[in-house]
Amino acid sequence: MRLLLIEDDADLGRGLRRDLLSAGFAVDWAMTGTEGAFLGVDQPYDAIILDLGLPDKPGLEVLHDWRAAQMSTPVLILTARDAWHERVDGLKAGADDYLGKPFHVEELIARLQALVRRAAGQTSPQLSVGGLVLDEDRQCVRLPTGAQADLTGTEFRLLRYFMRNPDKVLSKDRLTGHVYDQYAEHGSNLIEVYVRRLREKIGRERLRTQRGQGYVFPSDPGAER
Ligand code: CA
Q: Which of 46, 88, 90, 129 could bond to 95 as cystine, CB 3.0-4.6 Å?
């Protein structure tokens, strides 16, 4: 999952980015409203964390413009403590959730996971498809045999994206857009490398190559293609 973090406070932004990375998200960080507003419509984020108090372009205005342009990515706003009117204005402008500063990063992560889950129409907090169960807290996957496979950060993000989009042909470009942040070095052959590693861990039949188009994660790997 790839997040956009818009936060002008350098210390807070740096710490948040680090914590979100270690929680298994790819994170782009914008320090101004103008840059964030652009990135939000330009890149395929799964969720956005938007600080409302930005020096150049207020967060509320950024949000307003996005929603006016039919941009539907889930947005969690960060508001000043006790500023109940900010929360109301933010929700009315199209925010999906909010957190008042200061907050615990664990709460932010749990809220983000819930937002992305809801946006994907998933009701259970546990991601389970085709007999595989993804443990998002420990970043590992449980196989139908009961065995457990540990995943690296990239493998985890890639498998989570596949499991959230079963039975769809996912192009390498699309996978890259959701798995890496803007600073990562990524070529399309890197996706091939990680698909190969994932196959070794979860089984070849789990990730089918659709020649010239991309990959499919079947919800029923035993079924005829
Ligand atoms: Ca701020």
A: 90
Counted residue by residue, the chain has a size of 225
Measured between alpha carbons, how far is residue 83 from residues 33, 88, 98 in Å?
20, 9, 11
Q: pLDDT of 20-68, one tens digit each?
A: 999 989 999 999 999 999 999 999 999 999 999 999 999 999 999 999 9
Q: How confident is the model at residue 82 (pLDDT cuts 50, 70, 90)?
A: confident
Decide: residue 198, CB within 10 A, 0-12 exposed, 13-18 middle, 19+ buried.
Answer: buried
Report the predicted TM-score, pTM, of the whole model to 2 decimal places.
0.83
Around ion ligand 1, residues with a beta carbon closer than 5 Å are 8, 51, 53
Distance of CA 225 to the CA centre of its chain: 29
